[in-house]
Amino acid sequence: MNKTFTIFKREVLSYFKSPLAYVVISTFLVITGYIFTTELLYYKLAYMQSVFENMVMLLIFFTPILTMGLLTEERKEGIDQLLFTSPLGVVEFVMGKFIAAFSVYLIMLMFTLLYPLILEYFGTPDYGPIIGAYIGLILLGGAFISIGLFASSLTQSQVIAGLISFGILILLWILTYLKGIFSGPISKLIHNIDVFAYFVDFNKGILDSRGILIYLSFTFVFLFLTTRVIDRRRWS
Amino acid sequence: MIEVKRLTKRYGSITAVDNLNFKVEKGEILGFLGPNGAGKTTTMKMLTGYMPATEGSVTIDGLDIIDDYKEAKKKIGYLPEHPPLYKNMTVREYLNFVSELKEVEKNKRKETIDSVIEKLWLSDVENRLIKNISKGYKQRVGLAQAIIGDPDLLILDEPTVGLDPKQIIEIRELIKELGKEHTIILSSHILSEISAVCNRIIIINKGRVVAIDTPENLSKKLSQASQIFARIVGEKDKVIEIIKNIPQVENIEVIGEVEKGAIDYNLSSSSKEDIRKKLFFKMAEAGYPILEMQIKELTLEEVFLRLTQGLAEDEKGDKEDE
Predict the structure, then answer these.
(1) Domains along chain B?
(2) Which of A221, A223, B36, B63 gives B72 a disulfide partner, CB atoms 3.0 to 4.6 angstroms apart?
(3) Residues of A with CB under 8 A from a CB of B
């Protein structure tokens, strides 16, 4: 556990030593800020649902950028030879990386709290949906980051890692449109793993245990797969 | 200290390391010598537990490097071929990271890092970003990383590769110094480097051990027939005639005229006796000046050829066993 913290600390510092974290966070805030402002000016309602919907869309583009370098660089530079010849377990390593990227994501999300504060100042927003949406965003972000981390474990190239995780997220997104094509158990399966559909509930302020469970399962499964990939590579 | 049994690594049908067996005792400096692609790096990766072996085992003080990795890896410091450095950290930050990774106790960390920085003369660069320091410094930071946590065993993969001659000498001195407190296994493809620091040498080629011995014994074996290069002014036929009269000379090879008026020769002698004096006096007698003369050091290829020739019979025996 101590070494998870060691890995985490170094990774977070390296995010903020490079322009990456700043660029990702500021771009995300510019775009969501623009959406928030125009929506507010147009509808004049203390209402954020469509902003959150757009945030989820944006995460498809932004989390791959956040995660693509997580595991590629160490492999490319041969630093994994230091890591895996010291008494460090693969799980500790992967958890450290995950928590680091997740923390940067949470920092990014924290800045968006400004929007409900603005609503609070000028009106009386309904906090149920807003809190629900944030819980959904936190859980969904975790799932997306673990997918990105997994993609990053597959290759030494940041670009390819980014594209793989982007591809997986896009695939998940278009699942919604496949629901109508299939019938029976396949349709049911798609319905069950459609992560974007669950967010609709969160965004209404409904905390569905199934949604929470699916998001956590995604996170867990991809984290597990990441540890497997790293382990397997050394054995091959 | 470390015991290697039947260590084998296969990639598909290619055998990179084939049935390696050896033991290193505490305080020894063992050198791995072999041409590029001989399996040195693969062997070291298996010794450190970075890469599991296809067959065989590595145990460190009785602890298996795969099964008891947490305990076994604490005993090892490893410098890979390319030092494993985070480019956007300063030297001190990096060493602090490594000391956390290697479970140096919190209250001893500063002390440990200070002593490593002092030992490797890194104080000039300790607060600079690793990407901005020279190759020689990077190599030293790599070594610093390996000795953090005071591991009993240091495994160094080509520690002097890519350094300038001054740095090479520094690193060698350092390794000798470290050898007083640590057991060291290091690899190189340069014979003189290995023989300068090691107590014992393992020569490997194509994944197999060609020879294990002390540098003295190896060079004894190798120097039985020595080669001499000479540049002599004079008529070729007559010079050859005179050289042939020296009984120890086995073979004369005429290289040709490099310097105007002088001809280069390679002489090989069968005995250990130094024939340079004889050659000198004979040529002086005949009035042919020797412009240059030196004992030719064996190249690695020649070392291999000789060793493989000498050990051909042993190998036959091995193969029959299999």
Answers:
(1) 2-213 (3.40.50.300), 225-297 (3.30.70.600)
(2) B63
(3) 2-3, 6, 10, 14, 17-18, 77-89, 234-235
